[in-house]
Amino acid sequence: MIRYSDIVNKNEREIVLLKASPCVWGKCTFCDYIEDNNSDTQFNVNFNKEILKNVTGKHKVLEVINSGSCFELPKETLQDIKNVIDSKGIKKLFFESHWIYRNRLEEMKQFFNIPIIFKCGIETFDSHFRCEVLKKGAVFSGPEEVSKYFNSICLMVGIKGQTKAMIETDIDYLLKYFKHGCINIYVENSTPFKRDEELISWFRDNYSFLEGNDNIEILWNNTDFGVGGN
Length: 230
Known about the structure:
Layout: E1 4-7, E2 13-17, H1 41-52, E3 61-65, H2 75-88, E4 92-96, H3 105-112, E5 116-123, H4 127-133, H5 143-147, E6 152-157, H6 164-177, E7 180-185, H7 197-207, E8 216-219
């Protein structure tokens, strides 16, 4: 499992994949990423200290991800991240957060005292597919409500059951309401969900141009940021 990477092709930043306590939601039917978490807090703290030693501050931007939300990282790890930010001159931070933490984002902003881009995994704005099929646990009225809390979202493309109409709406909302976005092309894992190759091919033909947008990143493979593994 690769835990550190230097992203240089777009939105240059360093990225670390840390360990945290189990995802507070943990019910997404398409996700086995949460198997990377660990209930042993002290183990996580010590493990994360070693990963954070890789950060140089060369881009002055750091992204921190884990198998859940930033709020599930140990408090000591959060302090270690802050120490790295201060010592390496980091000016901007990227974090991930589940929708259920939307009212706690200000806590992180005050603690780190630098601009934070919070990514929220919406997956799709189709409420039935998001809530009843993917079991995402994010209930909201629409993109306007989401944008009140998050200026960056993650969408999923290419799961069997999705439609072109769903994806077209999702992309429209992403471009209209959000400053940043990450589009994850679904990669099959240990869950029963399958890739829709025809839908992915259609997306590639019609939306590859988004790669030219500085604020949108497309992950054709879930390791395209240079971290993670099988």
